[in-house]
Write a structure and sequence with these properties.
By secondary structure, the protein is of the alpha/beta class. The protein has a single domain, classed as Rossmann fold (3-Layer(aba) Sandwich). About 40% of the residues lie in helices and about 15% in strands. It contains 7 helices and 7 strands. A hairpin with a 2-residue loop joins strand 1 and strand 2. Helix 2 crosses helix 3 and helix 6 packs across helix 7. The chain starts with a strand and ends in a 6-residue tail after the last strand.
């Protein structure tokens, strides 16, 4: 995994846990699952009443603060469009820190082969890999096992 520390590039040869506990500043390219963005925007709680919006909001704010880059796919924008009227305005603040990736019919077919029941999550994983993301940020890590050979899925709390 290529990481940046100050102005030096190097390959991190340790586990991802090292990223969380290190005192050094790492810039990562993070692909956000649609639900994490919705958690932050809609101030959602889990089924036990626990606030899950706060970790998602904090991580998105780190992107605004230029601590990380974000990958947004046209697939995620499509999903967000079901809940938010003007999706493009949503990302105006982080546009300089945003990379985009587009899905193809081949990507959709690959996702359906990997997970016929949850191909939408598999597609997010495929797109995260296609964009060169370091991690996919999601609330439902287990749904991304079908793409674990391509990308590692982590909850927002992992990065805080």
């Amino acid at each position: 995994m290529l990481m940046k520390i100050a102005s030096f590039d190097f390959i991190l040869a340790t586990s991802p846990q090292r990223i969380k506990t290190s005192a050094l500043f790492f810039t990562m390219l993070l692909y956000f699952d649609t639900n994490v963005i919705l958690d932050a925007l809609l101030e959602r709680k889990n089924k036990y009443g626990r606030d899950i919006s706060l970790p998602a909001s904090k991580l998105l704010f780190q992107i605004v603060e230029c601590k990380h880059y974000i990958v947004i796919s046209n697939w995620a924008k499509r999903e967000l469009g079901k809940h938010i009227k003007n999706v493009n305005s949503l990302f105006a603040l982080i546009k300089p820190k945003m990379h985009t990736v587009n899905y193809t019919e081949e990507d959709v077919e690959e996702a359906k082969r990997r997970s016929p029941e949850h191909y939408e999550d598999a597609l997010h994983g495929i797109l995260a890999h296609k964009a060169g993301a370091d991690f996919i940020v999601t609330r439902n890590v287990t749904d991304f096992r079908c793409v674990s050979d391509l990308i590692e899925a982590r909850r927002p709390e992992f990065f805080l």
